[in-house]
Amino acid sequence: MSANEKRIAEAKECEKKALEHLKTSIWKMKTKPEYDSAASEYDRAAVCYKNAENLEMCKQMYLKAAECHGNNKNQFHEAKCKESAAMVARDMKDMKEAGKLYKEAAEGFLYAGVMDTAAMTISKAAKMMEEYDANVAIELYEFGLTLKWKL
Known about the structure:
Pfam families: SNAP. This is Gamma-soluble NSF attachment protein. It is found in: Membrane. By secondary structure, this protein is mainly alpha-helical. It has two domains: about 1-75, no CATH class; about 75-150, Alpha Horseshoe (Serine Threonine Protein Phosphatase 5, Tetratricopeptide repeat), CATH 1.25.40. Helix content is about 80%, strand content about 0%. It has seven helices and no strands. The model has no long low-confidence stretch (mean pLDDT about 90).
């Protein structure tokens, strides 16, 4: 078994654990999904997939972790996961998706009450996008200019 196969197997195990955390069962006296634990497992799976160079699955795991944090009403960590997914999309050279995810992350930071992090995220994303897609960079800069009024 190669190193990448081991990493993928570990990622699949983390996914399985995350799904277990999301299940409810009367027999186990578990009436609510454990979103926090599931998000943690999805984060671990994302890292494993990234190390195995399976970037599409890595991005999907970060988005699932973001969804779990969102269900748990933890907007800051939801935004962090979306920012991580955006970085992976950038590494995949999917600039349109990266721009969209950075924008969602900035909105999440804004709603979580960390305006400075929202502004830094948009600024960092726009600068990075300048060399790849000027239209996406302009979109991000325009969004950054409106942050002040979105509160």
